[in-house]
Amino acid sequence: MSDEKIGKNPPTVDDLTPQEIQGVIRRDRKHLAEFCRRLIPIYRAIARSRLVATSQHSHAKEEDLCQSLMEATLREETVRKWNPELGQLSTFLRVFAKRRALDLLMGKADRSCEKLMEEADLVAASDKQKPAPSMAPEDLMLWRQLQREALANPNPQYVELFRLHFLQGYSPEEIAERIGEDVQNIYKRIQRMRKDILSLRDRLLQK
Q1: 27 and 101 share a domain?
Q2: pLDDT tens per residue, range 162-179
Q3: Is the pLDDT score of 125 beyond 50?
Q4: What's the number of domains the chain is made of?
Q5: Distance between CA atoms of residues 34 and 57, nearest Å
Q6: What is the distance of C-alpha 165 from the center of its chain?
Q7: pTM
Q8: In this predicted structure, what is the pLDDT of residue 14?
Q9: How many CB atoms lie within 10 A of CB 106?
């Protein structure tokens, strides 16, 4: 009986066994094929989100960016670099893909604060709150200040969206499905939230 018939969610990269993950690292064809099958929906959602945010979306560009992210993941042996102590594999791969998509679509100056937020995803998702190795102490301190301010917002829907997208790495499509809201509204809310965070960052840096 299929997963759909018994009401179960399809398997994700987080359901891979340690043996299967080692198979991916060894580039075993069978394990690689299953890994890619589970990862493509995540990367496609990230590609769509980034392209919409930069007003570049088309289905062809979405597929091209998704393919580029998959190729980079395999070429750079990203799974080998994953540390389970810092959170789930899906979170780690989301952060990698978001960073790489920004590299491909945006200039360095435009993505400076974006990169700060994306690098903090691994920190926020970690039970042990270990900093990501690439984050400077001052950047980590700034991000934690931004977190405190955002989580203190009196609007519970704002806080929920901030947690889901910026702290847990869910895409707009995943959030829309999770909370039962139109995905275009989620896109708009995230864009407004990004502007809020940028403004807040500027105020904190001026203190």
Answers
A1: yes
A2: 888 888 878 888 888 889
A3: no
A4: 2
A5: 28
A6: 8
A7: 0.54
A8: 92
A9: 16
Q: What is the CATH number of the domain that holds 67?
A: 1.10.1740
Token digits of residue 170: 């869910």
User: Is residue 70 domain-shared with residue 115, that is, in the same domain?
Assistant: no
Comparing 58 with 198, the larger pLDDT belongs to 58
Joined together, the tokens standing for residue 24 give 């991916």
Domain region containing 49:
1-106
Instruction: Report how far residue 112's alpha carbon sits from residue 10's, in angstroms, rounded to the nearest whole number.
Output: 35
Other C-beta atoms closer than 10 Å to the C-beta of 99 total 18
CA dihedral 35, 119, 201, 136 (to 10 degrees): 180
In the predicted model, is pLDDT for residue 121 greater than 80?
no
143-to-74, 167, 200, 205 alpha-carbon distances in Å:
30, 11, 11, 11
> Can you give the length of the chain in residues?
207
Residues 9 and 76 reside in one and the same domain:
yes
Does residue 126 share a domain with residue 81? no
Q: What is the pLDDT of residues 96-106, one digit of tens each?
A: 888 788 778 76
Query: Which spans in 54-182 are helix H?
Result: 59-75, 78-81, 89-105, 112-125, 137-151, 156-162, 172-179
